[in-house]
Amino acid sequence: MRSSRTQEYTASVPSFMILHLGYGRKPGPWRISLPETFATPKNCLEFRVWGRYALFTDPLTRVGGEKSSYHLPTYEALKGICKSIYWKPTFIWYVDKVRILRRIRTQTRGMKPLDYISGGNTLAIYTYLTGDARSANPADITDGPGVEYQVRAHFEWNPHRAALAADRVAGKHYAIAKRSLDHGGRQDIFLGTRDCQGYVTPCVFGEGPGDYDNDGALDYGLTFHSFDYPDETGTGRLGANFWGSKLVSGVLTFPRPDDNSQILKKDIRAMEPRTFGVDRVRDVEAEALELAAATGNLDRGATS
Hints:
- This protein is α+β, with helices and mostly antiparallel strands.
- It has a six-stranded antiparallel β-sheet with strand order 9-10-3-8-5-13. A three-stranded mixed β-sheet has the order 4-7-6, with no helix packed on it. Strands 11-12-14 form a three-stranded antiparallel β-sheet.
- It has helices spanning about 75-85, 170-180, 230-235, 285-295, 300-304; strands spanning about 10, 30, 45-50, 65-70, 90-100, 105-110, 125-130, 145-155, 190, 195-200, 215-230, 235-250, 250-255, 265-270.
């Protein structure tokens, strides 16, 4: 429902969002706060994401086969969460900022990853992000230790998908994304790596207290930002982006991947973009007939 005076959009969180294992709180109304420069009320999402562990891997620690997490979420990891909520090749998700709600803690765990050279398993140490158990902060969702973030992101049309120009209907995609967020996303949510399960729910960015609200600025130096994929850049190259991350009062504001004043780019290799288009869309009735014929379960009524 939209209020013409305040331009706020409201929806209700379904009861199943009170998740298992003590995750979740009572459902209630939510709204979108004022958007960023490139965002509008029809392309901006704000949500809270949380989980028991997170692993936003520092690429320098992967050389020896072990993994250690950055203290802050990466742009690419949060973009992946947005795409798990809802994504179409018609648009690109841009993460504007993330707010750290829980005090940063790390936990080291012994792992036995697969050894793809000699077979079997090897031993490794993974350093995960976690957090304190529920504190006096009323904004905490999880009962036990875990990480919690508030994220603001928006989508923009992919200029390199001209074949999908007819699909550029902001209201449609916004409504689908909002419904998907209400239901916890279309695909599994994970925090950095697949073994760190996460959960999402709508929120108002900046609402409620955070553990870093009064801590000032913390500089984390040069960190990984995102990947440049050829279907989003149109260059036919895969690249990596790095930037100087700085947490200010618990909020990490991301530059856009094309902001050369803040982004340090590294070319990796040639890469062909994935192909999408209306010529690759098949009629659902024709696909059903083909499947029925292949399985020997052809419905005579469907062909009449």
